Amino acid sequence: MASKYDIIIVGSGPGGYVAAIRASQLGKKVAIVEKESLGGICLNWGCIPTKALLKSANVFEYISHAEDYGITVKDAKADFSGMVKRSRGVADGMSKGVQFLMKKNKIDVIDGFGKLKSGKKVEVENDGKKTEYSADNIIIATGGRAKELPNLPIDGKKIIEYRKAMSLEKQPKKMVVVGSGAIGVEFAYFYNAIGTEVTIVEFMDRIVPVEDEEVSKALAKTYKKAGINIMTSSEVTSVDTKGSGCKVTVKTKKGEEKLDCDVVLSAVGVATNLEGIGLEDVGVSTDKGKVLVDDYYKTNVDGVYAIGDIVHGPALAHVASAEGIICVEKIAGENPEPLDYKNIPGCTYCSPEIASVGYTEKQAKEAGYDLKIGKFPFSASGKASAAGAKDGFVKLVFDAKYGELLGAHMIGANVTEMIAEIVAVRKLETTGHELIKTVHPHPTMSEAIMEAAAAAYDEVIHI
């Protein structure tokens, strides 16, 4: 390893490793510091392995309903350990892929825990040995971890977080999921699909509370039909872990309820990894657990930058990657456009999937817009009917005055693959009428976008 670099990046998640590759492309001498596995939480314990588990559940559901497609299958059963093994294999493969990319782009990988030191230096501790490296610029990309509530202490056995939820030794018969954001509803779907009795406890008055209200209602309807118990406007006040299982006390509008389960999954959000990385030592400013940065992710300390979950903005892998690219391009003297945080897509990979971007209907009204709303149900889609996936809809929110697409909200099969069209449409400031006249292939799920736009302007054909 060299001792001096143009850029040192602390953390190799989708923010860190993407920034490292882009910096290398721009001719910079780069090192990346990682205390665990290349790819960070996303590739090893988040985005990728969870999708592998969800795919296993999805395949099992297909097989369980094979008769609906004219196929007879006997004695199908879920192999929980086999699903976990496949998931870990997928994660390992992705991490090795990042290793290859580091070598390909001539990026030095420094194993160990990185800590900022004054004078633009990073101290890396590995197996008790400390080594200092210096750089003209340092990017902190240390990511996040599961948030822990005081009344829900994670013990890794009976009260668990997402990492343990995807690597349990044994499938629980009963599970209580606390929180109904993306992590909560994805694991609720997975475990319910393979036969675990699942209860979701949500503090807000609806599940997936950041989504459009109609999306929340649609997912709740599907989940209840699948046998998932949903408790909204409710709060877990305590968990008794004595004995073989858990006794969960839930405070509801109607009073206190007791739930018995094998394991409690805490899915109440993300906490940032800022402890022990030397921010205080060098004077980097933070606020409420986030590093303060400008539009190009520069901190108040010269030569120190921060990206990803540790800065203000949505804690999403694709956001971290975009921030990393903008950050290193600015360092390299390019003139990148600041990230538009109002045009960031959000995806939830439960079944049916959820994808959204921009204003919800409620937010748009509160912002003072006069609206045109277009909605197209997948029950009217030929492709959805053929696929046996008629649940859900596409909902588009337009500004009535100028035709600007303010937001899009989808729930249904494969909608996470469709949302990028809306992001591009919003980026290009395309109007509703232009979207209607954009010919979509038939039969596809994506036709619902064109039809929803047409519905907003009373031109819809198929409903």
TrEMBL record:
SUPFAM superfamilies attached to this UniProt entry: FAD/NAD(P)-binding domain, FAD/NAD-linked reductases, dimerisation (C-terminal) domain
Residues at which FAD binds: K51, G114, D309
Cofactor: FAD
Domain Pyridine nucleotide-disulphide oxidoreductase dimerisation: 344-453
EC numbers, comma separated: 1.8.1.4
Residues passing through the membrane, by range: none
Single GO BP term: 2-oxoglutarate metabolic process
Keywords noted in UniProt: Cytoplasm, Disulfide bond, FAD, Flavoprotein, NAD, Nucleotide-binding, Oxidoreductase, Redox-active center
Primary site of residence: cytoplasm
FAD/NAD(P)-binding domain span: 5-324
Record's subcellular location: Cytoplasm
Co-factor remark: Binds 1 FAD per subunit.
This protein's GO CC annotations: cytoplasm
Disulfide bonds: C42-C47
The UniProt record lists the keyword Transport: no
Active site annotation, chain numbering: H442
Binding site for NAD(+): G179, S180, G181, A182, I183, G184, V185, E186, E202, G269
Gene3D superfamilies: 3.30.390.30, FAD/NAD(P)-binding domain
Family of the protein in this entry: Belongs to the class-I pyridine nucleotide-disulfide oxidoreductase family.
Anything else known: The active site is a redox-active disulfide bond.
Name under which the protein is recorded: Dihydrolipoyl dehydrogenase
Organism encoding this protein: Marivirga tractuosa (strain ATCC 23168 / DSM 4126 / NBRC 15989 / NCIMB 1408 / VKM B-1430 / H-43) (Microscilla tractuosa)
Phylogenetic lineage: Bacteria, Pseudomonadati, Bacteroidota, Cytophagia, Cytophagales
